[in-house]
Amino acid sequence: MKKLICLILSSFFSVNAIANVQMPTDDNAEAIIHKAWQLYRQHGETEVEQVDLKVIREGETPRHKTLSRWTRYEATGEQVVVKFNSPSIDKGLGLFISRHSGQQQMWLKMPSWSKARRINGNRWRQYFAGTDLTFEDNAELSGEDIANYTYSMQAADKQGWQITAQPLAGSHSAYSRRDIWVDSRYAISRIDYYNRTGLLIKTLRNLELKMFPDGAWRPGRIEVNNVKKKRTTIFEISSRQFGQALNARTFSEDFLRE
User: By three-state DSSP, how is residue 38 classified?
Assistant: First the structure.
């Protein structure tokens, strides 16, 4: 009997150790979003991805691109570098995102520029590299600063939660709100984006979700359907590696020139 009790207690504490946070209640929308991104970020200190990208627009030939993405997770935020490898017209196009303690900065490198240039918050609303992700969206692929939003619960059941995120006044966000679907494993499966007048712009879906033993989650495929532009961008993760030792120079605007 004592052995059985020990096994039950051990299992209980192991499950809670996975999240490393108190289990959120069903009506605590902010805590659910926080846990989803905490689980996402905890799998490794670094991440390197190779991505095949396709932009599809009705009546046009699909455009194919490839890019590399480096991410370093830290206690106070993360740093992300994106560099396009093909086609040749996009080679040399890059983006460096640095976010720490609620402070976010971005540097853009165009193929024709000799060096990267810092971009201000007003430009974060613009689409990046002919895709359906803005600069703002790219910064939130690996997490969001919950201090910049208010969260409210829209629906909850055994499958998960539907939560609305609204930016605080004075935000540079292009959106009046985002509706976020979080499944019962705390993986974000879908986000609907609404413009400043409340109209649906686009829907992002995280597909082929992989769950790791420590509770972390990753999509193998991301689809963004832009209903306003009648365009779809598909991101296929061709490879993903965690825990690589990366040179500190990787996470700098200078690296975008190399």
Answer: helix
Q: Are 234 and 219 in contact (CB under 8 A)?
A: no
Strands 177-183, 160-167: parallel, antiparallel or unpaired by DSSP? Answer: antiparallel
* Calpha distance 166→206 (Å, rounded): 21
Alpha helices (H) in 20-171, listed in sequence order: 29-41, 135-139
d(CA 152, CA 163): 6
Confidence (pTM): 0.88
Alpha carbons 200 and 178: distance in angstroms, whole number: 9
What tokens appear for 244 in the block?
């690589």
Mean pLDDT by 10 residues, the chain (258 residues): 43 41 71 96 94 94 97 92 97 94 90 94 92 96 92 96 94 93 98 97 98 97 96 98 94 92
CB neighbours of residue 130 within 10 Å: 15
Kindly state the tokens that stand for 229.
């532009």
